[in-house]
Every structure is written in structure tokens, then in C-alpha cells.
């Protein structure tokens, strides 16, 4: 189900110069109605055959199973990875929520589950409106030009052909791609592709936008445009989730921060407090 849903991921692990960031923290304002409710969510991956580090093997290997595996005939052999282990929270219209945590803590899995790309193995997720995981990535086609992908992505987000045409120039300007928009996407660098995805997926003012490690791409100008776009979405009562490694980015863009640790929420609250606690934790762990 998730095989062709290329979600922007840890490749985008750039550090940002804090001076490049937009200044000030976003206005918190009044909380709107709930937009996303996650209730006791568990997500477990089943990896067939392979054995992953830190994973749980459900059954002890019997001699028979080993024998069958050697013959390549083992059908029930899988490893379980419990990526999200009982997560609950409520997001509101108008919030931008940063999701932080070390690699493998379950951030991407949580966002994919909210986007409906992964089924919960336990628990419930309610989303008001249509979630857009940054973004239309599942639909964009590498062999086609950026121009064609703007149309396809826009239609996938529910815009009409006319609406996409009207917003075309704005999307291209936002992406900063210039004439490269007429080249096939496969010629783009990861950063260029990420910028175009961001530009397309925010063109429709989504109800719930999720950005997984894609904000760090681009120059200071692109980041400032991104911040403004996120503020606009929040003002239109949307909800934005942002995964980023740069705590400065998180503080500049978010009204709330959730810290994920080994599949559970370790802390959820004020950006300054949560990022400070996370920083202390990572420092202490580095010393061990
Ligand atoms: N498609 C997958 N199949 C199996 N295990 C996965 C898959 N995706 C992620 N995992 C595992 O789930 C855990 C959480 O991963 P992930 O949600 O990507 O964390 P993060 O985004 O915080 O780095 C990790 O142990 C990771 O190895
Ligand atoms: Mg991730």
C-alpha cells in the first residue's frame, strides 16, 4: 500500500544557519475546533523475511522453520517493527505542530498514518478534511516535466484544471525553479523536487498539511515563503505538522511541539519548553 508513496524523508537532514530563519515565533491565538484526533494509535510494520536490528521476532525459530527458510519456502516468516506504540493527542484548526525526535522514533510513521497511507494496527485516527502529506509525492511522475506535474498534482489535490492554470505562475515562482519547470522531474535535485512538492501541495490550502523533513531545502528566501504559506494555512483554519531536525526551524514555525521517542510521545506542549528538554536529552545521551 505504501510502496509507491515516496514520502520525503531523512535524506533532507540539513543544518540551517539560525540567522537564515524567519525571525519571531508564530502567533498562537485562540485554538480552533479539533482537526485531527489520534486515539491510542499503534502502527506495526511487518517485514517479511529480513531481520531488522532492534526488531521483535514473534516466534522463536524452530528447527523446522530454519529448514523451511533455507528452502525458501517459509511463508509465515516475518519480523514485526512496532514503530508507533500507543500515541494519543488532539490537534486543532490553526495549530502548526512540530514533531521532533531521534531517527527511528516514529515521526514519519505517525504522519503517514494520519495521512491514511498506513493502517493503524490498533487505535483510531479522525481527520476533519483532507490530509495532504507533503505531498502529492505519490502522484508526481519523474518522467514528466515539472509543468505537467503541477497539473497532475493540483488535480490530485482537488483543484480544477482552470484553478491550476490560474495558480501556475505562483507555484513556479514559489518553487524558485524558473525554466527548469519545463524539464522532466528526474533531472531535478532532491532539493528542487522537494521545493516543487511544497509549492504544489500548499497551492490548494489543504485542511491538514504534513511536511516531513522537506522544509530545510532551499535558500533563506524559500524558507521565508514557506513560513508565510504555513501561516496562511493556519489562518484559514488549517493544521500543519512539521518534522524537521533543526530545532530553530521548529521554533520559528510551530505553535506546539510533540517529541516522539521510541514510538511514544515523550512530551507535548510549548515549543520553547519541549525543544529545550529535547536538547538537554540529546546532549546527555551524547555524553553516555
Ligand atoms: N516500511 C518500513 N518497514 C519496516 N520498518 C519500518 C518501515 N518504515 C519505518 N520502519 C521502522 O519503524 C521505526 C520508526 O521509523 P520512522 O517512522 O521512519 O521514524 P522517524 O521518521 O522518526 O525516523 C524505525 O524502527 C524504522 O526502522
Ligand atoms: Mg522520518
Side by side, the strands of the main sheet go 5-6-7-3-8-9
Count of discrete structural domains: 1
| Bound small molecules, deduplicated | adenosine-5'-diphosphate, magnesium ion
Task: Indicate the CATH topology.
Answer: Rossmann fold
Q: What gross morphology would you assign?
A: globular
Tell me the structural class. Answer: alpha/beta
CATH superfamily: P-loop containing nucleotide triphosphate hydrolases
Strand content: 15-25%
Query: How much helix, percentage-wise, in residues?
Result: 25-40%
Question: In sequence order, what are the helices and strands, one letter per element?
Answer: EHEEHEEHHHEHEHEEH
Over the alpha carbons, how many angstroms does the gyration radius reach? 20 Å
Number of separate helices: 8
Report low-confidence residues grouped into runs of 5 or more: 1-16, 52-56
Name of the CATH first level? Alpha Beta
Number of strands: 9
* Average pLDDT score: 80
Distance between the termini: 39 Å
Tell me about the largest β-sheet.
6 strands, mixed
At CATH's second level, what is the architecture?
Answer: 3-Layer(aba) Sandwich
Amino acid at each position: 500500500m505504501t510502496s509507491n508513496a515516496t514520502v520525503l524523508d531523512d535524506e533532507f537532514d540539513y543544518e540551517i544557519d539560525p540567522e537564515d530563519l524567519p525571525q519571531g515565533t508564530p502567533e498562537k491565538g485562540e485554538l480552533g475546533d479539533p482537526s485531527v484526533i489520534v486515539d491510542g494509535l499503534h502502527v506495526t510494520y511487518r517485514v517479511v523475511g529480513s531481520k531488522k536490528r532492534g526488531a521483535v521476532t514473534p516466534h522463536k525459530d524452530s528447527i523446522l522453520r530454519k529448514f523451511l527458510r533455507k528452502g525458501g519456502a517459509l511463508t509465515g516468516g516475518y519480523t514485526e517493527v512496532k514503530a508507533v506504540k500507543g500515541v494519543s493527542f488532539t490537534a486543532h484548526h490553526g495549530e502548526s505542530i512540530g514533531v521532533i525526535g531521534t531517527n527511528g522514533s516514529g515521526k514519519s510513521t505517525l504522519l503517514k498514518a494520519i495521512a491514511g497511507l498506513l493502517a493503524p494496527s490498533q487505535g483510531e485516527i479522525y481527520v476533519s478534511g483532507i490530509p495532504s502529506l507533503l505531498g502529492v509525492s505519490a502522484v508526481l511522475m519523474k518522467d514528466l516535466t515539472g509543468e505537467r506535474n503541477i497539473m497532475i498534482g493540483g488535480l490530485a489535490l482537488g483543484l480544477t484544471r482552470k484553478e491550476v492554470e490560474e495558480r501556475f505562475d505562483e507555484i513556479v515562482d514559489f518553487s524558485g525553479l524558473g525554466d527548469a519547470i519545463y524539464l522532466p522531474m528526474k533531472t531535478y535535485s532532491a532539493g528542487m523536487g522537494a521545493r516543487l512538492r511544497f509549492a504544489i501541495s500548499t497551492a490548494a490550502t489543504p485542511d491538514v498539511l504534513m511536511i516531513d523533513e522537506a522544509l530545510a531545502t532551499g535558500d533563506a528566501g524559500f524558507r521565508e515563503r514557506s513560513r508565510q504559506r504555513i501561516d496562511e494555512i493556519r489562518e484559514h483554519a488549517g493544521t500543519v505538522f512539521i518534522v524537521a531536525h533543526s530545532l530553530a526551524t521548529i521554533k520559528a514555525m510551530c505553535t506546539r511541539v510533540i517529541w516522539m521517542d521510541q514510538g511514544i510521545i515523550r512530551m507535548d506542549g510549548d515549543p520553547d519548553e519541549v525543544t529545550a528538554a529535547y536538547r538537554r536529552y540529546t546532549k546527555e545521551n551524547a555524553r553516555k
